[in-house]
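User: Fold this; C-alpha cells only.

Assistant: Input:
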Amino acid sequence: MISNSLSPADRAGKEGKMKCLAKLGGAAAAVIILTMAWAGSALAHCDTMDGPVVTLAKKALDKGDVNLLLPWVAKEKEGEIREAFDLVSAVRGKGPKENELADRYFFETLVRVHREGEGAPFTGLKPAGLDLGPAIPAADKALETGNPKPLLALIEEKIHGGIHKYYVEAMERKKHAGDSVEAGRAYVGAYVPFLHFVERLYVDATTPIAHGAGDVGGAGPGHPEPAVAGKHAH
C-alpha cells in the first residue's frame, strides 16, 4: 500500500513503478511459456510415428542396416540399439503379428534412447499426423528440398507482424502517456511487451541451440533463460 503522506507526484511515481514491476513479471512469464511451448513441439517431433526417428527405423529394419540409426543415439548407447536391432530382426518375418510387435518394441527402444541423449523423458510413441505447427514442417521441407526460402518467408512474416503489432500499440499510447497517470500506465503496459518481444527475438537469433539441451521445463544449453527484466532501463 502507498502511504497517504506522499505527495501526489511521489504517489503517482510509486504506483507507476509497482505497475511496471507487475507488467514485467507478466511479460517474463509469457516469454517463458512461449519458449517452453516451442521447445515442446520440437522435442515431440521425434516421438511421433511419422517423425524422423521412426521413419528412419523402418528403413533400417527393411534394409537390415542398423548403422543408419546410430547417428541418432549417443555413442555409449550404440550397444543397446545394436542388441535390440538384432533381436527384432530375428523375430521379423515370422508373421504379421510378430512383425508388428517387434517393430513397436524397437521403435520405442530407439526413441527412448534418442530422447535420453537429449536429456528428455520418453512418454511413449505419439500417433502420426500430430499438429506440430508450421515451423517444424517448414524446416524439414527446407532440408528435404534444399530451398530455405519458404521457411525464411514464414519466419520473416511472423517477425514483421509481431514487431509491427507491438510497435504500433506502444507508439499510439506514447502519444497520450503524459495526459494522466492512467494514460501513462497504459503506455507502460504496451512499452514493456514491445521491448520483451524484440529482446526475445534477438536472444533466440543470436544464441546457439545445442543438441541435448534437455526437455521442456528448464533452460539448458540450447534454451537460454529469458533476459532479466531489470536489464532494461524502463
